[in-house]
Amino acid sequence: MAGAVKNPEQQARQTIDTALRACGWVVQHYEQMNLAAAQGIAVREFPLASGFGRADYALYVGEELVGAVEAKKGRLFRQLRDTDAEIFRRRA
User: Fold this and answer.
1) What's the pLDDT score for residue 88?
2) Is residue 2 part of a domain?
3) Radius of gyration, alpha carbons of the chain
4) Could you tell me if residue 50 is inside a domain?
5) Is residue 17 part of a domain?
6) Residue-by-residue pLDDT tens, the chain, 92 positions
7) Spatial distance between the Cα atoms of 25 and 48, rounded to a whole number of angstroms
8) Of all residues in the chain, what percent are helix, strand and coil, respectively (each to 5)?
9) Domain region containing 30
10) 4 in helix, strand or coil?
11) Are 45 and 29 contacting, i.e. CB atoms less than 8 angstroms apart?
């Protein structure tokens, strides 16, 4: 679909994917998740515990969940405070 008009969510995902890859992460969709594919895996659309929806990206080093990236309107990245990261780990 070359030349297709992208909505803001698609544009943000493309920008985030590019930034993660530039930092050495391998980006995968949750349905094709393979944590053995590389040392650093960014998993898109990661489902959280029932009732909590999905994280835009879950970040794994080896097989350990180490963080998340959330796209927010008006800015691409939201840094997680320690308490946010702990809540995310419990909901994943």
Assistant:
1) 52
2) no
3) 13
4) yes
5) yes
6) 556 667 777 888 888 899 899 989 999 999 999 999 999 999 999 988 888 888 889 999 988 898 888 876 655 454 444 545 555 556 55
7) 21
8) 30, 30, 40
9) 8-91
10) coil
11) yes
Assigned domain for 20 exists: yes
The amino acid sitting at 28 is Q
Number of domains present in the structure of the chain: 1
What span, in angstroms and rounded, lies between the C-alpha atoms of 40 and 53?
A: 23
CA 76 to chain centre: 12
Q: Is 55 exposed, middle or buried (0-12, 13-18, 19+ CB in 10 A)?
A: buried
Q: What letter would DSSP give residue 2?
A: T
Beta bridge partners of 55: 46
CA-nearest of 38, 3, 78 to 28 is: 38
CA dist., res. 21 & res. 81, Å (int): 23
